[in-house]
Amino acid sequence: MRGERRLVDAAATEAAGAQLAASLRAGDVVTLSGDLGAGKTSFARGVLAALGLAEEAPSPTFAIVQPYEPPEVRLDVLHIDLYRLDDPAEVEELGLDEARHDAALLVEWPERAGPGYWPDALALHIAIEQDGARRLTWAAPDAWDGRWPR
Ligand SMILES: Nc1ncnc2c1ncn2[C@@H]1O[C@H](COP(=O)(O)OP(=O)(O)OP(=O)(O)O)[C@@H](O)[C@H]1O
Ligand SMILES: [Mg+2]
Where are the transmembrane segments (predicted)? Predict the structure, then answer.
């Protein structure tokens, strides 16, 4: 199912992430695409805060993979930023297929892994509107029925 929602400010972006957190579970992959500075990390911060993270999540741009696990969050989450990946083949070295068994994956810059790398992902896209607000659009596979949108 496809849909869209306007995010009037950064708080709205984080609130949308918090809504997603309520239905997130191990094995899920959520991809976050959009231009530089669109709000992908803001969305992921909203997810992580709603899962219980007390401090503000750092951007994983340099770490590439930032893991979170209970008790700091309700479930295992890998916050991933593939921006610095030079070659799509490098994504295999991150061990994400294995990690997915017991963690949810939030992936910024998923296109760096190559087209269609996560065909079953909830694919979110954030676009910057002319007035500076953001537009969240999504393509949700059937497995997400009833879980997103919510
Ligand atoms: N709905 C919104 N309206 C206006 N500003 C927003 C909105 N959502 C997020 N922002 C702002 O956009 C800026 C960039 O956000 P963020 O770092 O999350 O982007 P990003 O997509 O992760 O960037 P990068 O491509 O560098 O990883 C921040 O200043 C954030 O507060
Ligand atoms: Mg980011």
Answer: none
> How many whole angstroms from 85 Cα to the centroid of ligand 1?
20
Q: What is the largest CA-CA distance in the chain?
A: 42
Ligand 1: residue of 41, 48, 128, 136 to mutate (most ligand atoms within 8 A of CB) is 41
CA of 105 to the centre of ligand 1 (A): 19
Verdict on whether the full-model pTM lies above 0.70: yes
> Exposed/middle/buried for 14, CB within 10 Å: 0-12, 13-18, 19+?
buried
- Ligand closest in space to the Cα of 129: 1
Note the CATH architecture for domain 2-140: 3-Layer(aba) Sandwich (3.40)
Where does 32-73 have alpha helices with state H? 40-50
Give the distance (Å) from ligand 1 centre to CA of residue 130: 15
* Res 62: pLDDT: 86
* Sequence spans of domains, the chain: 2-140
